[in-house]
Amino acid sequence: MSDTRPSLDIKEYPDWEVQKNRILTLEEWQDKWVTRKIGFHQEQGNQLLKKYLDTFLKGESGLRIFFPLCGKAVEMKWFADRGHSVVGVEISELGIREFFMEQNLSYSEEPIAEIPGTKVFKVCFDFDSNDLLANIGKFDRIWDRGALVAINPGDRKCYTDVMLSLLRKGFQYLLAVLSYDPTKHAGPPFYVPDAEIQRLFGTKCNILCLEKVDAFEERHKTWGIDYIFEKLYLLTEK
Ligand SMILES: C[S@@+](CC[C@H](N)C(=O)[O-])C[C@H]1O[C@@H](n2cnc3c(N)ncnc32)[C@H](O)[C@@H]1O
Question: What is the whole-number distance in angstroms between the Cα of residue 25 and the centre of ligand 1?
Fold first, then answer.
């Protein structure tokens, strides 16, 4: 069978603004977990992250690593097992509990008094949620996969400004986005073209596209698309 999908040199899709007014509520995200529409979860972890792990960590130890919109990403354990400290933020309590259960980690939970309706789930027991609030400001690394692409397009600038405000000097921010025809699938995940990454990060960061890979899977056929690429960007301080 011949493969008619575009080559990896494909240009960015011009009509990317078609998704700009699309909004998904937090309840809709929580519902995805309840109804098991979690095709985004990668049981084996992200292969691009695996490939660029050393580039990302730069041989440094004891890093604080932030996972925005973390789901039950197994990569959190990869870093914890290497001795780094990991903080993830996720709206679905179900997703968080599944992470700890599937990774065989016992955990404690306590409400964060300052932010009603939120809880901190943690593996180390001498950790005070007040410390989390006090220290959440600074991380050495961010792994952003399934996060910027899940943020409603109209909220992207606010999101990326918060992400950048959380970073320490000398940070590395690894960002995975998806490239597909946005007129065929409403998202999420949303299409985030190169120009958008420049707009969001360009003033503060050097932006390097490390790799672009064919990410097409069977499940993508139901989205009405016939190609999808994953692009990995390394963002560093200007
Ligand atoms: C596409 S999934 C990606 C999860 C994870 N990063 C991964 O790579 O598997 C997006 C996740 O973000 C969560 N989410 C969406 N909006 C959120 C928000 N505003 N705050 C916290 N979590 C959110 C969803 O529940 C979902 O688990």
Answer: 11
Q: CA–CA separation, 182 vs 162, rounded Å?
A: 26
Q: Is the CB of 95 under 6 A from ligand 1?
A: yes
Quote the CA–CA distance of 40 and 62 in Å, as a whole number: 29
Answer yes or no: is the C-beta of 66 below 6 A from any ligand 1 atom. Answer: no
Structure tokens at 61: 């130890």
CB 97 less than 6 A from any atom of ligand 1: no
Q: Is 176 in the pocket of ligand 1 (CB under 6 A)?
A: no
- Fold (CATH) for 25-87+136-237: Rossmann fold (3.40.50)
* DSSP 8-state symbol, 151: S
Per-domain residue ranges of the chain: 25-87+136-237
The preferred substitution site among 78, 90, 115 for testing ligand 1, maximizing ligand atoms within 8 Å of CB, is 90
pLDDT higher than 80, residue 126: no
* pLDDT higher than 80, residue 16: no
- Ramachandran category for residue 208: left, alpha or beta (phi over 0 → left; psi -120 to 50 → alpha): beta
Q: Whose CA is nearest to atom 13 of ligand 1?
A: 69
Per-residue confidence band for 6, with pLDDT thresholds at 50, 70 and 90: very low
List pLDDT tens digits, range 219-235: 999 999 999 999 999 99
pLDDT at 61 (0 to 100): 96
Query: For residue 45, which amino acid is it?
Result: G
The predicted model scores a pTM of 0.92
178 CA to middle of ligand 1, Å? Answer: 15
